[in-house]
Amino acid sequence: MARRISVVLGLAAALLLIYFAILAHAARAATPVDVLRASDSYDLGRDGAVTRIWRVEIRVANAAAARREAQQTMTYSPGLETLDLVEAATRKADGRVLPAGPDAVVEQLPRGSPELDRFTDRRQKVVLLPDVQAGDTVVVAWRKLRARPLLPGFATALYRPVDLPWRDLSLVVRVPRGTVLQSEVHGFRHSVTEDGEAVVHRWQADPAAVAEDSALAAFDRLPRVFVSTWRDWDALARDWAAAALPKAQPTPQIRALAERLVAGAADRREEARRIYDWVSARIRYVALYVGDGALLPTDAGIVLARGWGDCKDHVALFHALLAARSIAAEMVMVNLGDGYSLAGPPGFAQFDHLVTWLPEFGLYADTTAGTAPFGVLPFAAAGKPVLHAVASGALRRTPALAPGGASATLVTQATLLADGRIRGTTRTSATGPFAGDLRHSAQWAEGIGDGAAAAQLRALGLDGGGSFSFAPPETPGNEYEVNGRFALIADPALLEGAGFVPTPGLRLLVRPGDMLLGPLRRDIGETTAAPCHAGRQSEQIVLDLPPGRQLQRVPADLRLETDSVSYLAQWRLANGRLTITRELLSRFPGPVCGGTARREAAAALLAIRRELATQVALADDTAPGAGAPVQRNLTVAVDQDRPGGTGRRAGPQRERGPIAPTEPDGGG
Hints:
The chain is of the alpha+beta class and 668 residues long.
């Protein structure tokens, strides 16, 4: 019978713990470094203790790289583990070895916001390496010991980054004889040896392995390995539930609050919605990694008393309030990145968030979103594999967006004045996940204050000012609207025939096609699987031309029609007013498009991207030869089955505030 070993990874901090050094170097991929050797080793003791050793050898190519790599860092949680430096030296290009002295290690808070020490007990140790010059190699090894188990099992994972020259990357797990260890391997070689009463598993990265053709998360496409001692996902869920659910018990204070919140509610669903709204609005969300909080929630009574917590704490208090009304709920792990699959060996590395499932009403709820209506998940959580804290049937999937579940509408009415200034208004309305994004934008505007409109115009590549008006972002409901007024600085060139893209004004959400079909501003290829969603996006841009000016040409209409995509762009000019109407309808079932569906979406995105960039130019309508502008119609046929195709889409972005496009819109 395999012995039960302690879990070494926290939920929210899993990637931080496993990949600290890897990600730190990947973030500076532009710095010339050569990772000669890197290994992540775990020794599982029979008493439940886990010892981890991370060792790395990095050769630096120039002085800039030497300055950056001359100090190496590792984080840890003093409440759960100890961290010691095992080895630290500079290996000179001529073969000499200069070890770091005993005073070369300093301890400090991790880099981050000034408030970080309020919300985490994590610390970091930094070793300062001597005399690192171009051509030298830094060698560092850290030992981390966790003696107290959080859960009775072990899981870890490792992937090989593709943005650095890794010569040798390995994962080693040493377990007591008789321990059953599951693994799933992509682009690594597995070997097993025996060492007395222990069995040593080694996974060595294959230098020839390449990333899979996908725009999804690293754990879905890069060379990777997953390891676990849990028999299956249900076993992991039971152990997690046994440790986490006691944290969600209602106290007398919680029961009294629940009674007040539901007073006069029409039915049980209304009771659940009121509790959801209160937790969402009144419990401040903060990232929290303190002790067991890396994986387990804080007691619900404590969360209520202090008024803040992370996703796990939100879920614990929400559950306790629901339990006070005898409304069933289940804790649920999900990831908010672009990962849409799970490995066979159970573990936490592919999850980064907690939400709640309410079986009585058949819906998922996320109180940390802050702006999402009851039962509406963000794009990033749609169609995702999830783990429920239940005894059986734990592995499930959130529903993909249903047709009509997400819509976004922009209406901009603007006037081009005789001196080249543009003044106008923009109304943005949305439902479903788009409404959540729009509410985040409103929260951002509240935080900025009077300068929000000018800041958003700058993010869109425009110069000017304005103002926003909107209902409180926390107002309940599935629909939301933001209104804005704007004035752009004068650009006389617009009156003299310079080409320009008619401005969409104070835009707060993505353009038609983006999010639903793929990344509008980036062509990622047509053969790669990527997220996609059902939904509708529309915009109407009205521009009144100055007296004495007309369009040199009215751009052509564009109509796209495929099995899963409808797009119509119409350009109309009448009595000095240009009206552009665009509407996109995506019928993709989601959440991931591949094969024919990917080619269909990519071809549509390419045509839409070009249409959105259409420029117009003005002419003096009193000039000789001036006449009625010419208008054409254009229908683009998208061959869904042709080999090759045209594009593909990256996953939806996580919830965010106002967008800052990678390319500014054309000006006006």
